[in-house]
Write a structure and sequence with these properties.
CATH topology: Translation Initiation Factor IF3
Protein name: RNA-binding protein
Mean pLDDT: 91
GO molecular function, one term: RNA binding
Pfam families: CRS1_YhbY (PF01985)
Shape: globular
Order of helices and strands: HEHEHEE
Strand content: 15-25%
CATH class: Alpha Beta
Keywords: RNA-binding
Number of domains: 1
InterPro entries: RNA-binding_CRM (IPR001890), RNA-binding_domain (IPR051925), RNA-binding_YhbY (IPR017924), YhbY-like_sf (IPR035920)
Structural class: alpha+beta
Length: 97
Amino acid sequence: MKLTGKQKRFLRAKANHLSPIFQVGKDGVNDNMIKQISEALEKRELIKISVLQNCMEDKDDVAEAIAEGSEAFIVQIIGNTIVLYKESEENKNITLP
């Protein structure tokens, strides 16, 4: 499944008021971080992740690694902020158009 333009627009609007709950620093992405992000996505469905300036990896590569590891969709990469969405199995709050 892939997100349509309409669904991405809907999710971007929902993510507008969110604050980043994870930060990727100079150590980059690791398995523990991906596990925690997966758990957060299960609870919230939509999260923001901030890529710090001291991160050695490119923000697009970071977003791909996190999305692939947590089986989530990249909604948006704006500046150094990544917005991810994954449909929750137990805590479904967001209904996509």
